[in-house]
Amino acid sequence: MKVKNIFNWTISILAILLVIISAYFGFAQKGLNSGTSASRWSNQNGVSEIKRRGYLRVAVFGDLPPYGWVNSNGKRVGYDVYLAHRMTQDLGVKIRFVQVNANNRVDTLNSNKADIILANFTVTPERKDVVDFAKPYMKVSVGVISPKSAPITSANQLKNKKLIVTKGTTAENYFSQQKNVNLLKFDSKTQQFNALKNGRGAALADDNSYLYAWVKQNPKYTVGIKSIGPKQYISPAVKKGNRSLLKWTNKEITKLNKESFFVEDYNKELRPYFGKDIKPTDIILA
Question: Which InterPro entries does the record cross-reference, listed alphabetically (predicted)?
Fold first, then answer.
């Protein structure tokens, strides 16, 4: 009888322990799953955490003058770089640059290697699904450059010809949807411009805002098509769900607009590289 009671008592204790353990892990799992992974990331990399660690990780280009590149003195310069320095100054932290290519900007955020992208990042519906864009600070559309000796001045001239683009750009996205255009794709801006110089394609398509600057430095080429496709905007981008940094960035863009910072940035970083035909209002948002 005593053995039976002990057995029943043991079974009851085990059952109670099982309920407690199940409840604990159920609660823990619920806690883990509450909110998206993006929102959990946001808590770890929001403004308060950035201030605590003392630096902001900013993704920029390293080979795209006049927006983001390393000059002959080994210094990072450009329109986006100038903006990055001002933002970190206002945030009260130091800056750490993360160099990116056009096709790895989103991955850089998703892998937690950067807090914000300032790399001439055009807002598109597809990108809105994977990152959160702040307010825009530039306007842009796709342009096409070609040799002056064989200018491409209309989309019809691109049929059955090779068009050079960089992977992950709006130019690639736009012309991928056009018929009879053969795209020659590269990983970086340096590679695509070298391909054009080497005659590997009839033309090159990219954001018109820096094609203007490139042809000024390379006078054998011309912007035959100044604008094609929809008008678009350049914005900072943060990881999806990072509401804290997104909110701060939106306030910062509004503040800088009121202070005419982007006119200052244009005059310092862009004007020397653009021709006389380009006005500040062609690039920045008034």
Answer: Bact_solute-bind_prot3, Iontro_rcpt_C, Solute-binding_3/MltF_N
